[in-house]
Design a protein that fits this description.
- The complex is a heterodimer of chains A (about 375) and B (about 300).
- By secondary structure, chain A is α+β, with helices and mostly antiparallel strands.
- Chain A has helices at about 5-15, 30-40, 65-75, 125-130, 150-160, 165-185, 220-225, 230-240, 260-270, 285-300, 315-330, 345-355, 365-380, and strands at about 1-5, 20-25, 40-45, 60, 80, 85, 85-90, 95-105, 110-120, 135-140, 185-195, 200-205, 210, 245, 250-255, 275-280, 305-310, 335-345, 360-365.
- In chain A, helix 12 links the parallel strand 18 (about 335-345) and strand 19 (about 360-365).
- Chain A is elongated.
- In chain A, strands 1, 8, 9, 10, 11, 12 and 13 form a 7-stranded antiparallel sheet that branches. In chain A, strands 2-7-3-4 form a 4-stranded antiparallel sheet, with helices on one face. Chain A has a 4-stranded parallel sheet with strand order 15-17-18-19, with helices on both faces.
- Chain A is built from 13 helices and 19 strands.
- Chain B contains 10 helices and 16 strands.
- A 7-stranded mixed sheet of chain B has the order 3-4-2-1-5-6-9, with helices on both faces. A 7-stranded mixed sheet of chain B has the order 11-10-13-12-14-15-16, with helices on both faces.
- The longest helix of chain B has 12 residues, at about 20-30.
- Classes of the chains: A alpha+beta (about 375), B alpha/beta (about 300).
- At the A-B interface, strand 8, strand 9, helix 4, strand 11 and helix 9 of A face helix 4, helix 5 and helix 8 of B.
Chain lengths: ~375, ~300
C-alpha cells in the first residue's frame, strides 16, 4: 500500500524525522485558512500516488496570499499519469542549500533491506545512478538487527556536511528511518530530497515516499485504516476475495491464477483485442466467488464480451459451469460469453454448458479458440 | 530420478490439523505420497488423517524419518515454522502459505543464513513461500498441485505461477511429453530456490532431458536464469513468459530502479532469454511444440 506524501510525513514526524510544518487541504477555502496559519512563502504540492508530479506542474511555490487560490485550484484540476488530484499539501517554504537522497528498500537479490544514499539528491537521482554509479552508496542492512551503525557512519562520511551538528543530525536520521522501516513494515521509505536548509542550518525531509507491505497490514491497524481510496469495483473485489484491476479494453476477463490471467490478456492482445480488466478468482474458487467476480466485471459499461478461462487443479470444471449458468439465470446479463474449461472435471463442465443451449454462450477446451471467439464477439457484439 | 522429491521421500505436514492442512494432506496421500506425520505445536500425541501428530519438526523427524516438510501454517506463524523446519532436520521445506510479511521472510533468511534458498552447512532447501509446491509424477506430491494432471517423463518444469504450470504440463502431457519434476517456486519478492538453482538441479538430474521455465513480469530472476543457462546448462531450455500486455506499474520513488537496473517487463525478460539462445513461446500452447523440437534436435 502506497502512502500519500502527507501520510508519509505524519509517519516521519511521529518517528522524529524532521519535516516542515504543513497541512493537507481539499478546497481553496481550506487552503486559505491553512495558509493563514502557516505563513508565506508556501509550497503547494499535489497529493498523488505516482512519480513525476513536479514535471506535470503538480508543485508550485506561492509567495503571496493573492496567488494561493489560483495555484490550489489549478493543481486540484490536474490529472497526473491517469490519477486525478484530490488534495494538496501546503508546506512552509525553506531555503535549500543542498539536496541529498536517502532511502531504505528491499533488495530482492540479497533478500535483505538495503540503505541507499547519495550526496546528489533531487529529481535527477536515477540519472546520477546511471551516469555515476559511484555517487550512490548501497549499504546492506541486517534484517534482524535494530542497529545500523556501520551503514550510518558510512552515510555521514559520504555526505561530508562539514558541520558536527549536521553530521549528528544525519546519523540520527538514518537510525530513525531504519527503525521506521522495520517497525512499520515498510517496503520503501524514500526521502528525496533530504534537504540541508538554512536559518538555522538543519536537515529536513522535503518529500516522503512510503510503501507499506500489504501482507503486514494486519499488524499495522492504524495504517490499514488509512488506505487511500480505491476504484469502487476494486474495493468490491477486495471484499469478495478476488483480485481485480481495471484495464483499458472491452473484453471482460475472469480466470484462476495470476499467471494464467496475464497469459490470457497476452493472448487477447495478440488476437487484436484488449481486456477490460484483470480478474483472478484464485485457487479452489466456488460458484459464489465466480458470480461475485462476474458481477464486478459486468458492472463496467465498456465490457462488450466476456471470457471465463479456468484451468481446474483443485477448482472443478463442473462447479464453475454451474456457477456461470446460475449467474446468467439470476442476473439476465445479455453479453456474448465464452467459457474455456480445462483440467479437473472440465469435460463435465463443458457438457453442462453445451446442454443448457443458451444463446450467446459458447464453450471450448482450447484457450486460443476461446480468445479468438471472444475478441470477435467484442468487435461485433453490442450490449442489450 | 527427479529433483528434490521422489517416491522415497517421507513427508511431514506442518499445520496438518488445520482445515487447509487436512484437505491437502488427504490429496497428497491419495496421489500416493508417503506422508508420515503431522506437526502442530500443542497437539503432539494426537492423530490426524490417520497419522501421528508431533509438537515439533525435530520430534517428527526423529520418530518417522521424515525428510520433506510441507508447511500450511497461517502467515503470522510462518517464519517460526520455517526456522523450525530448517533446524528440525528436514532436507526440503515447501512453504505453501501466502500473505507472509516481507519483514518476516527477510528475518527468516537472515536467521537461517539462507543463500538463494540453501544453507551452507547442511542440506536444506526452501521452496516458496506462496507457492503450489513440487510434483514428481507417480512419485511424490509435496504441495497443493493436482497430481492427476502430470505424467512421468523427461521434461522438468520450474515456474513462478500455479495454474500456468498446469496449463503447460497438460500441454506437454497431451503432446506425449511427461515430466520429471515440476517445481512451483512461488511469486513472492523473497523466496527460496529460484530459477537458477532449479536449473542447476535439473542439469544434474539424469532423468531430465529438457527444461521449461515459466516466468512472469517483475523482478529479474528470468534474466539471471538466462545468464546461468548460457554458461552452464547443457540441456535444452524453453521459456514462456506471461505479462506482455500488463500495464506498466506505477512506481513509487526511485529506489527500485536504482537497485535492479532492470525494467522487469516481459519483453525485457524474453529478450534476455532469446539473447542467450533460449526459445521463448509466445503462447502457452506453443511450449510443447518448442520442447519437442528441442528434444528432436539433441
Amino acid at each position: 500500500m502506497d502512502l500519500f506524501e502527507h501520510q508519509g510525513k505524519e509517519l516521519f514526524a511521529a518517528a522524529g524525522i524532521p519535516v516542515l510544518p504543513s497541512r493537507v487541504v481539499f478546497t481553496e477555502e481550506e487552503a486559505e485558512r491553512a495558509a493563514a496559519e502557516l505563513g508565506y512563502p508556501l509550497a503547494v504540492k499535489a497529493q498523488v500516488l505516482t512519480g513525476g508530479r513536479g514535471k506535470a506542474g503538480g508543485v508550485r511555490v506561492v509567495t503571496r496570499p493573492q496567488e494561493l487560490g489560483e495555484a490550489v485550484s489549478a493543481i486540484l484540476r490536474l490529472i497526473i499519469k491517469d490519477k486525478p488530484v484530490h488534495s494538496v499539501l501546503l508546506e512552509q517554504g525553506a531555503s535549500v542549500m543542498r539536496e541529498l537522497y536517502l532511502a531504505v528498500t528491499l533488495d530482492r537479490h540479497a533478500k535483505a533491506p538495503l540503505l541507499i544514499f547519495s550526496a546528489r539528491g533531487g529529481v535527477d537521482i536515477e540519472l546520477v545512478a546511471k551516469q555515476d554509479p559511484a555517487a550512490l552508496l548501497r549499504l546492506p542492512l541486517d534484517a534482524v538487527s535494530p542497529d545500523c551503525g556501520g551503514p550510518r557512519d558510512a552515510v555521514v562520511a559520504a555526505a561530508a556536511l562539514g558541520d558536527t551538528q549536521l553530521d549528528e543530525q544525519l546519523g540520527d536520521l538514518v537510525d530513525r528511518l531504519w527503525t521506521l522501516y522495520r517497525e512499520r513494515d515498510a517496503s520503501l521509505v524514500e526521502v528525496n530530497p533530504l534537504a540541508v536548509v538554512r536559518d538555522p542550518a538543519r536537515l529536513v525531509a522535503l518529500d516522503a515516499k512510503v510503501t507499506i507491505d500489504d501482507n503486514a497490514l494486519y499488524r499495522q491497524p492504524d495504517l490499514a485504516a488509512q488506505r487511500p481510496d480505491e476504484d469502487a469495483r476494486e474495493r468490491a473485489a477486495r471484499e469478495a476475495g478476488v483480485t481485480y484491476l481495471t484495464l483499458d479494453g472491452d473484453v471482460g476477463v475472469l480466470g484462476n491464477g495470476a499467471g494464467l490471467v496475464m497469459s490470457t490478456l497476452d493472448m487477447i492482445g495478440a488476437a487484436g483485442g484488449a481486456a477490460a480488466d484483470f480478474c483472478d478468482v484464485g485457487g479452489g474458487a466456488r460458484a459464489e466467488r465466480i458470480a461475485a467476480a462476474l458481477d464486478i466485471i459486468t458492472s463496467d459499461d465498456r465490457v462488450r464480451a466476456l471470457l471465463v478461462n479456468i484451468f481446474g487443479g483443485i477448482t472443478r470444471g463442473d462447479e464453475v459451469a454451474r456457477g456461470v449458468l446460475a449467474w446468467l439465470e439470476t442476473t439476465g446479463v445479455d453479453l456474448p460469453l465464452v467459457v474455456r474449461l480445462d483440467g479437473n472435471n472440465a469435460a463435465e463442465g463443458l457438457q453442462l454448458i453445451a446442454a443448457a443451449g443458451i444463446d450467446g454462450l459458447s464453450v471450448t477446451l482450447s484457450a486460443q479458440e476461446a480468445v479468438e471467439s471472444v475478441v470477435a464477439a467484442a468487435k461485433t457484439g453490442s450490449r442489450a | 530420478m527427479s529433483i528434490l522429491v521422489d517416491k522415497s521421500s517421507r513427508v511431514l505436514v506442518q499445520g496438518m490439523t488445520g482445515r487447509e492442512g487436512t484437505f491437502h494432506t488427504e490429496r497428497m496421500l491419495a496421489a500416493g505420497t508417503s506422508v508420515v506425520a503431522g506437526v502442530t505445536p500443542g497437539k503432539g500425541g494426537q492423530s490426524a488423517c490417520g497419522l501421528p501428530v508431533f509438537d515439533t519438526v525435530g520430534e517428527a523427524v526423529q520418530a518417522t524419518g521424515a525428510d520433506v516438510s510441507v508447511i500450511f501454517v497461517p502467515a503470522r506463524f510462518a517464519k517460526a515454522a520455517v526456522v523450525q523446519a530448517a533446524e528440525g532436520g528436514v532436507r526440503v521445506a515447501v512453504l505453501i502459505t501466502e500473505g507472509i510479511p516481507v519483514r518476516d521472510m527477510s528475518e527468516a533468511v537472515a536467521e537461517l543464513k539462507l543463500d538463494d534458498g540453501r544453507v551452507a552447512e547442511r542440506p536444506f532447501v526452501l521452496i516458496g513461500p506462496n507457492c503450489p509446491g513440487i510434483v514428481t509424477p507417480d512419485g511424490c506430491n509435496a504441495g497443493i498441485m493436482a497430481a492427476s494432471l502430470f505424467r512421468p517423463g523427461r521434461v522438468g518444469i520450474v515456474s513462478r505461477s500455479g495454474t500456468l504450470t498446469y496449463e503447460i504440463a497438460m500441454g506437454l502431457t497431451r503432446a506425449g511429453l511427461g515430466q520429471s519434476t515440476c517445481v512451483g517456486m512461488g511469486g513472492d519478492p523473497i523466496h527460496g530456490l529460484g530459477f537458477r538453482e532449479c536449473l542447476e538441479l535439473f542439469e544434474a538430474d539424469t532423468q531430465t532431458e529438457a527444461v521449461v521455465l515459466v516466468g512472469e513480469i517483475g523482478g529479474d530472476d528470468e534474466e539471471r536464469a538466462a545468464g546461468f543457462a548460457a554458461e552452464h546448462l547443457t540441456k535444452p531450455l524453453v521459456a514462456y513468459i506471461a505479462g506482455f500486455t500488463a500495464p506498466p506499474g506505477k512506481r513509487m520513488g526511485h529506489a527500485g530502479a536504482i537497485i535492479s537496473g532492470s525494467s522487469g517487463t516481459a519483453a525485457a525478460k524474453a529478450a534476455a532469454l532469446e539473447a542467450a539462445g533460449i526459445p521463448v513461446a509466445r503462447r502457452p500452447d506453443e511450449t510443447p511444440v518448442l520442447v519437442a523440437e528441442a528434444l528432436a534436435a539433441i
